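Re: weekly structure request thread

Next one in the queue (177 aa):
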Amino acid sequence: TRVGGRTDLPLSTSGQAQAQKLAAHFVTVTFATARSGPLKRTRQTAIAILAAQSSAPELITDLFLREIDYGPDENRPEDEVVARIGKPALEAWERDSIVPHGWRVDTAALIGNWQETFAELRDQPGDHLIVTSNGIARFALSAAGATGLEGKLATAAWGVIALEGEEARVTEWNVRP
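Done, posted below.
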């Protein structure tokens, strides 16, 4: 089922296990700041990661990090989504972040939000935790000017974007513990 921004579900059992794996992986990282989208599943993931920290920052909710709105495909089984938009359209979304007809995604605004976030974080030294969905995370690549990378992050995967001077550079993408 394609679960988007209008469906506020908590983490499933497997999602909780994935959050714990992420927490274990990042236990040695000291985050200077932490942000997540407003949905339960992203906040619960961020809270699990921060709970493993010896001195965790306050978790800030950032509304632009909410999952995208799949429009008529929200909460629809994947076979129904493919039947409505076609397999090539879904592949273009997965590979190139080309938004299928009917989905409610403001690509320019999302890229702009990521660029604003990068600019704000440049002034704050240290590592920063941002927890969101793959639907939103993929636009961080465009905001960083990255090319040649598949946009989708797998479930429980992460990326690293280094903020150096005025540049944002993707150093890791779609990595899992």
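The chain has a mean pLDDT of 95. Residues 93 and 99 are 6 Å apart (CA to CA).
Next request, please.
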